[in-house]
# Entry
Amino acid sequence: MAEQTRFGTAGVPPTFRLLKAKMHDVPSLLREAGLDAFEYQAVRWGAQSQITQKDAEKLGDEAKKHDIHLSMHGSYFINLAGKDDVVAASKERLIAGAIAADWMGAHVLVFHTGFYGKLEKSYAFKTCLNALKEVNQTINDMNLKVKLGPETMGRKFQVGSIDEIMTICQEIENTQLVVDWGHLHARNLGAFKKVDDVRAVAEKIESTLGSKVLQSMHCHFSKIEFSSQGERKHHPLDEPRYGPEFELLAKVLVDFKMHPTIICETPLLDIDALKMKKMLQQELEGKASVNPQQKLVF
Ligand SMILES: [Zn+2]
# Structure
């Protein structure tokens, strides 16, 4: 089967909570809604998993049954550029996430790398890289299947420019490129105004990491409000005051024949994920009518 673009939610949509859905009910509910990905939120975890192996496996089984692509968002309490004890605790949190991600069969453990703090930026980054090499080694030694997914970050004081994330992906094996387009927009103070702005990032990724990495990236998308320091708040797709517009990304996805997993991080989760799916479909159909010979896969 050809690779396809998938859409899903960052955590359980509020409407599912109203149905009193259990975690293992989420895959079938997402499938019913027309979605095919789910990012489990382990964002408040410490050094211990807060899901049992049994529950994680049950979620994984249901995800497989309903063909829902699972990912996990790791703890927010990670700073690989911090003091030694902070880095040690951060590594433990990443590994706890990786273990649980492996239980549920999540493909990628998305995480925020760290903060520059008072360190010189390149030194802070080097510290992160060294810590990640050790985490990756532990993950390999434990024979865990999940990939590490460093994410592009929205605030200027966070490690996570597109260049830094690409360098991590080059230097460390078993990584999955994670591009949060809203974050990049905010970090660069409204960078994505036209299609060419998004295209430039795609071209940069393609020339640095290759077409395959570009085409199979893991994405987060939300409209985003920012200040001079970058990201401030996520907003729904219909919010006209903020960008970026999903249509810009949709055009680039079609042009570069990309088939990412796109996790919706707007406050409307499933509703906006479906909206994005529809926009991409329209973009594909528009392209098809211009060039009927082109074989489209969706
Ligand atoms: Zn994140």
Remarks:
- The mean pLDDT is 94.
- The radius of gyration is 18 Å.
- Residues 269-290 form the longest helix (22 residues).
- The first strand starts at residue 6 and ends at 10.
